[in-house]
């Protein structure tokens, strides 16, 4: 399965950033567009989560950064969805920018 990573910088502190990530992932609406079977498991202590579904898997973590925090998303796509990698990257970047502005 091809893997790729997307990173997003924000000036918000780690706790606030993780709270925003948790809020939009908990609603599930945007993730359901990718895969209706997607489920999210949060690890509050590590400020991370795992997303798994029938079509893809992803791990997201929020880390401290010199100017705030950094969100890192590692996506694992099945070989058949590799041609859509660019679209998935673009959509994830828009989603992060929208919720972490």
Enumerate the spans where pLDDT stays under 50 for 5 or more consecutive residues: none
Helix content: 25-40%
Question: How would you spell out the order of helices and strands?
Answer: EHHEEEEH
Major sheet, described briefly? 5 strands, antiparallel
The whole-angstrom Rg is 13 Å
Number of helices: 3
- How many β-strand stretches? 5
Blueprint of the fold:
Layout: E1 3-10, H1 14-27, H2 29-34, E2 39-43, E3 48-52, E4 57-65, E5 68-76, H3 85-99
Walk me through this protein's architecture.
- It contains three helices and five strands.
- It is an alpha+beta fold and 101 residues long.
- The protein has a single domain (3-87), classed as 2-Layer Sandwich (Alpha-D-Glucose-1,6-Bisphosphate, Chain A, domain 4), CATH 3.30.530.20.
- It has a five-stranded antiparallel beta sheet, covered by helices on one side.
- Strand 4 and strand 5 form a beta hairpin.
- The longest helix is centred in the C-terminal third of the chain and has 15 residues, at 85-99.
Main attributes of the structure:
five-stranded antiparallel sheet; Alpha-D-Glucose-1,6-Bisphosphate, Chain A, domain 4; alpha+beta; globular; 35% helix
């Amino acid at each position: 399965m091809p893997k790729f990573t997307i990173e997003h910088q924000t000036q918000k502190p780690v706790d606030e950033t993780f709270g925003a990530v948790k809020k939009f992932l908990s609603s599930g609406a945007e993730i359901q567009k990718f895969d209706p079977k997607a489920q999210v498991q949060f690890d509050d202590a590590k400020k991370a989560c795992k997303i798994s579904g029938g079509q893809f898997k992803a791990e997201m973590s929020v880390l401290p950064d010199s100017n705030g925090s950094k969100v890192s998303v590692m996506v694992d796509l099945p070989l058949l969805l590799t041609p859509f990698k660019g679209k998935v990257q673009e959509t994830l970047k828009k989603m992060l920018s929208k919720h972490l502005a």
